[in-house]
Design brief:
alpha+beta, 104 residues, 4 helices, two-stranded parallel sheet, flat, single chain, Rossmann fold
Protein backbone atom coordinates (compact mmCIF):
# COMPACT_ATOMS: atom_id res chain seq x y z
CA UNK A 1 0.00 0.00 0.00
CA UNK A 2 1.32 3.41 -0.94
CA UNK A 3 0.71 6.31 1.43
CA UNK A 4 0.65 9.73 -0.17
CA UNK A 5 0.37 13.15 1.35
CA UNK A 6 -2.64 15.08 0.06
CA UNK A 7 -1.66 18.13 -1.97
CA UNK A 8 -1.88 21.49 -0.29
CA UNK A 9 -4.27 24.09 -1.60
CA UNK A 10 -1.29 26.14 -2.77
CA UNK A 11 -0.12 23.18 -4.85
CA UNK A 12 -3.57 22.85 -6.43
CA UNK A 13 -3.77 26.56 -7.26
CA UNK A 14 -0.48 26.70 -9.12
CA UNK A 15 -1.13 29.79 -11.19
CA UNK A 16 -0.33 33.21 -9.81
CA UNK A 17 -1.06 35.39 -12.82
CA UNK A 18 -3.88 37.69 -13.85
CA UNK A 19 -5.86 34.94 -15.60
CA UNK A 20 -9.40 34.71 -14.14
CA UNK A 21 -9.73 32.09 -11.41
CA UNK A 22 -13.32 32.91 -10.40
CA UNK A 23 -15.99 34.49 -12.56
CA UNK A 24 -19.46 35.55 -11.39
CA UNK A 25 -21.72 34.76 -14.35
CA UNK A 26 -24.49 37.17 -13.34
CA UNK A 27 -22.26 40.23 -13.12
CA UNK A 28 -19.18 39.24 -15.09
CA UNK A 29 -16.99 40.19 -12.10
CA UNK A 30 -13.85 38.10 -11.87
CA UNK A 31 -10.97 37.39 -9.53
CA UNK A 32 -7.54 36.54 -10.93
CA UNK A 33 -5.39 33.69 -9.65
CA UNK A 34 -3.01 36.21 -8.08
CA UNK A 35 -5.87 38.00 -6.32
CA UNK A 36 -7.35 34.66 -5.25
CA UNK A 37 -4.05 33.61 -3.67
CA UNK A 38 -3.78 36.91 -1.80
CA UNK A 39 -7.38 36.61 -0.58
CA UNK A 40 -6.80 33.01 0.54
CA UNK A 41 -3.67 34.00 2.43
CA UNK A 42 -5.54 36.82 4.24
CA UNK A 43 -8.55 34.64 5.05
CA UNK A 44 -6.43 31.70 6.24
CA UNK A 45 -4.44 34.12 8.41
CA UNK A 46 -7.63 35.44 9.98
CA UNK A 47 -8.83 31.91 10.65
CA UNK A 48 -5.49 31.06 12.26
CA UNK A 49 -5.77 34.18 14.45
CA UNK A 50 -9.22 32.97 15.52
CA UNK A 51 -7.71 29.64 16.53
CA UNK A 52 -9.02 27.47 13.69
CA UNK A 53 -6.89 24.34 13.58
CA UNK A 54 -6.67 21.16 11.56
CA UNK A 55 -9.68 18.95 12.23
CA UNK A 56 -11.95 21.78 13.39
CA UNK A 57 -15.42 22.30 11.93
CA UNK A 58 -16.29 25.77 10.63
CA UNK A 59 -19.80 26.84 9.66
CA UNK A 60 -20.00 29.33 6.80
CA UNK A 61 -23.15 31.41 6.42
CA UNK A 62 -22.99 33.56 3.32
CA UNK A 63 -24.67 34.05 -0.01
CA UNK A 64 -23.21 32.20 -2.98
CA UNK A 65 -20.36 34.14 -4.51
CA UNK A 66 -16.61 34.76 -4.40
CA UNK A 67 -16.56 35.51 -0.66
CA UNK A 68 -18.07 32.10 0.12
CA UNK A 69 -15.63 30.35 -2.22
CA UNK A 70 -12.67 32.13 -0.62
CA UNK A 71 -13.89 31.32 2.90
CA UNK A 72 -14.47 27.67 1.97
CA UNK A 73 -11.00 27.33 0.45
CA UNK A 74 -9.36 29.14 3.39
CA UNK A 75 -11.00 26.74 5.85
CA UNK A 76 -9.75 23.82 3.76
CA UNK A 77 -6.27 25.37 3.66
CA UNK A 78 -6.26 25.32 7.48
CA UNK A 79 -7.07 21.59 7.38
CA UNK A 80 -10.51 22.18 8.86
CA UNK A 81 -13.90 21.06 7.58
CA UNK A 82 -16.09 23.74 6.02
CA UNK A 83 -19.86 23.50 6.41
CA UNK A 84 -21.65 26.03 4.19
CA UNK A 85 -25.11 26.82 5.55
CA UNK A 86 -28.01 28.55 3.82
CA UNK A 87 -28.28 32.13 5.10
CA UNK A 88 -32.06 31.96 4.55
CA UNK A 89 -32.47 29.43 7.39
CA UNK A 90 -34.44 30.56 10.40
CA UNK A 91 -32.98 30.64 13.89
CA UNK A 92 -34.37 27.23 14.85
CA UNK A 93 -33.16 25.62 11.61
CA UNK A 94 -29.72 27.22 11.91
CA UNK A 95 -29.42 26.09 15.53
CA UNK A 96 -30.38 22.54 14.53
CA UNK A 97 -27.80 22.53 11.72
CA UNK A 98 -25.06 23.78 14.07
CA UNK A 99 -26.02 21.17 16.67
CA UNK A 100 -25.89 18.41 14.02
CA UNK A 101 -22.45 19.59 12.93
CA UNK A 102 -21.29 19.88 16.55
CA UNK A 103 -20.03 23.38 15.90
CA UNK A 104 -19.57 25.45 19.04
Amino acid sequence: MTVTTPPTLRQLVTRSDDHPALVVPESGASLSYAALQRALDRAAGRLAALGVREGDRVALVAANGPALVIAFLAVAARGAAAAPLNPALGVAEMTAELDDLRIT
